[in-house]
Design goal:
Mean pLDDT: 84
Number of domains: 1
Number of strands: 0
Number of helices: 7
Oligomer: single chain
Structural class: mainly alpha
Strand content: under 5%
Shape: elongated
Helix content: over 70%
Largest sheet: none
Distance between the termini: 75 Å
Length: 197
């Protein structure tokens, strides 16, 4: 977050040397947040009976949080790259970035994003735990893995190691979701058809 002109003056020369990197990073962040929003809706379908209402609320909060996160990432990466490569003085570009981040618009979306990234995983983990539609260890792995993955900064390939528990949880949840869809399409009993004598 670039909230001061001093911070902006530090990052603008870096972004000016490598302008495509902020665009690529912003695009990847937006795609990841879009996938997370969709996955919240899919995971909510796994919670049955006791956890379904909480899962629905978690999916709503997670979707709104991911949308707001996409807006915040547009404020960060593309705005930084555009300000760094525009034909502006360094002071004017720094003031633009600081003003953007300190605006009511920027604060509103940032607050909603941060509430969403903390509240939604906790609520979804609780919903999965309570509904017992998945093993309880998987509900804990989803919550803990997502919280750890979201807190990582871009520090090279080592970040992948921190994201592996969340990736494993998502693969296991997707397998359960697909298995649930297949079992819903099967007939209730093998001999439920009409009897021919």
């Amino acid at each position: 977050m670039i909230t001061t002109t001093a911070t902006a003056l530090k990052v603008l020369p870096i972004a000016a040397k490598h302008p495509t990197q902020p665009y690529v990073a912003g695009s990847l962040a937006i795609l990841a947040l879009g996938a997370l929003a969709v996955s919240y809706a899919a995971i909510a379908t796994l919670a049955r009976n006791r956890g379904s209402a909480v899962a629905t609320v978690a999916a709503l909060i997670g979707g709104i949080g991911a949308f707001c996160g996409a807006i915040v990432n547009v404020l960060v990466y593309p705005n930084l790259a555009a300000a760094a490569t525009a034909h502006l003085s360094a002071g004017a570009a720094a003031r633009f970035l600081a003003t953007t981040f300190n605006s009511g618009f920027g604060h509103g979306f940032s607050y909603a994003y941060f509430v969403g990234i903390f509240a939604a995983p906790a609520l979804m983990g609780y919903a999965l735990w309570r509904s017992r539609s998945v093993p309880r260890w998987l509900a804990v792995l989803f919550f803990a893995g997502l919280e750890v993955a979201q807190q990582q900064i871009s520090s090279g390939p080592v970040v992948i190691l921190y994201m592996l528990p969340f990736a494993a949880a998502m693969v296991l949840l997707a397998a359960r979701d697909l298995a649930g869809g297949r079992s819903a399409r099967r007939p209730a009993t093998a001999g439920a058809g009409p009897r021919i004598r």
